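Sanity check. The docking grid for zinc ion depends on where the pocket ends up, so I'm generating a full predicted complex first rather than guessing from homology. Inputs follow.
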Amino acid sequence: MTMAVTVESGDITQVQADVVVVNLFEGVTEPSGGTGAVDAALGHLITDELAQSQAFKGKLGDTLCLHTHGKLPARWVVLVGLGKAEKFDDTAIRRASAAAIQACKTLKAKTVATLVHGAGIGGVAPDTAARLVAEGSVLGHYEFTKRKTGKDAKGEAKPEPLAHQIDRLILLEKHTEKHPEKYEALKQGCQLGLDIAAGVTMARDLVWDSGNHVTPTVLAEAARSLNGGAISVKIYNQEDIEAFQMGSFLSVAKGSVEPPRFVHLTYTPPSGKARKKVAVVGKGITFDSGGISLKTNDWIEVMKMDMGGAAAVIGLFKALSARDDLDVEVHGFVPTCENMPSGGANKPGDIVTSMSGQTIEINNTDAEGRLILNDAMTYAQRHVKPDELIDLATLTGACLIALGYAASGIMGTDQPLIEQLRAAGDRAGEKLWQLPLYDEYETFLKSDVADLKNAGNDRQAGSSAAGTFLKAFVEEGQKWAHIDIAGPAYTKQATPEAPKGATGVGVRTLFYYLYQLPGTRA
Ligand code: BES
Ligand code: ZN
Ligand code: ZN
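Predicted complex below; grid placement will be based on this.
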């Protein structure tokens, strides 16, 4: 069940809720605004606690739970740190909101109330503030419990319950009747944040779930569920993919008993006016064993996440499915299959012909992402002729090694596009770091027998080598950016807004980019 988030008029000291959340900048000892009002109602419990506490200093994402002892209608107050005032930004709002919701979960709250535009957040435009609080709260509330029954062998509920769900989050604003425009802005910002978060949630659910559940067929059906309104979805099967002559994609798929799918999603602006056409392509390997070049490292059991790029594309369309106000024609492409070792699988040394006509020597069957992406990119360029082509893929372990979970790698043929995506990522709370596509890397991919080979002979510049391979399929003059999300897609380093495991990375960057959403500093 999802947590309902609503903007309402009311006073933070009067509101009927199980928990009231208030915030504080680092180092502040005398709270003002809503936090000050709650402090006064509590007989200065907050001020006293701040004077004595070693545990809570208002650091970003730190929380302190205080019992109200009947001094407020709410049973608990959660105080959340906003960090240093001079470092305050979009990420701080999302993180503080997410941390607060997590504290409310530990208190088993059903209804939570917080100020949406009060102390701290007051300097930010109301719609931006509401959007970020809604986004952060839903992202922090998220847990993947779909595959847990919570029952023992006798079918009885275990004493340790499944994740606690908060039913309702109220974003409060005082005297909205006096400020109808502001109230409207808060409501619209909140809805935008919820739509974005719903997209991220869908992407997380798809990435968390296992390879036996999220097969290529199931992934395609998840995309199909978005069909309707401004979105249309077409799904192509094995025969269609053969007719498209996607020999590179098919060569990966043929190692598995699961049939491949190729998904084309389209968002057509209901206004009929599109300022540009953007194609996004997502790698949809539902399990990457490495193929005959079988993986031997620790990463193999998390290779269900190798469809993180596809999940980002589908999640983006999930977010768009709730909206009718984007003035961009968006095309999403998802080539999806498994990479398995079998008697029918690609063999190292095999030579395949891509849809582009170029032949590829497969010297490493574990470099399969680029084999499915190149055909999807060719299809996108030929069939929709996009102004901009963006691909997202959990493409290389090298990118994870270079940048960690903290950032995705970005590279491409158009510097302004790369810079705009990086800026959108910063506002979205998803870092992108540019890696080069130097001409020198082309020598890695020289083949004696085919037009190019799919992997270098050694491990140098692995992410750029993969990017260089993809670049060979980018047509003259095409603006293209490649985003390698291998690090952030599935993380062991949790933040409140992106708990461990599937993060849904990419959805927000793409959405913020397409909508040109402003940041806290506009
Ligand atoms: N799916 C992997 C990349 C990956 C590794 C993603 C770890 C997330 C975490 C990709 O298909 C792969 O195996 N790439 C190879 C390329 C190499 C064979 C040139 C790699 O990174 O080792
Ligand atoms: Zn691989
Ligand atoms: Zn892979």
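Relevant for the grid: The pocket of BES (ligand 1) is lined by residues 288, 299, 306, 364, 366-369, 394-398, 400, 455, 462, 486 (CB under 6 Å).
Also worth noting: The domain at 4-144+165-174 is CATH 3.40.220.10 (Leucine Aminopeptidase, subunit E; domain 1).
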